[in-house]
Fold this protein.
Amino acid sequence: MLGLNGFGHRKKPRSFEYKPRYFDSELQERENRRRAILGENYDVEDDSYRPGLLIREHRMRRMQGQARRAQKQGKVTLIRTVIFVLLVFTILWLATTYFGQSLEKR
């Protein structure tokens, strides 16, 4: 009545209930065999699946490839720069040599 019906009573929050939707019998058998062999307290060192492993590996391969390409591109850029500078100096030398000779003949 007038919003006072729950004055001293509060509802409890809903509790978390996890109900698995899929049960892998082979995985359970492997776990049982491991526990039988290694005992109850063992560390799982199974590399068959780790969440996010493929994403991290792909990212690392991509980063390594980019680093390799950047290093290769840096070498190519240096070679191009050296060739360009040599060409400019050669053209300037040839121009001054032949232009200087033509001025002396006049």
Summary: The first helix runs from residue 25 to 38.
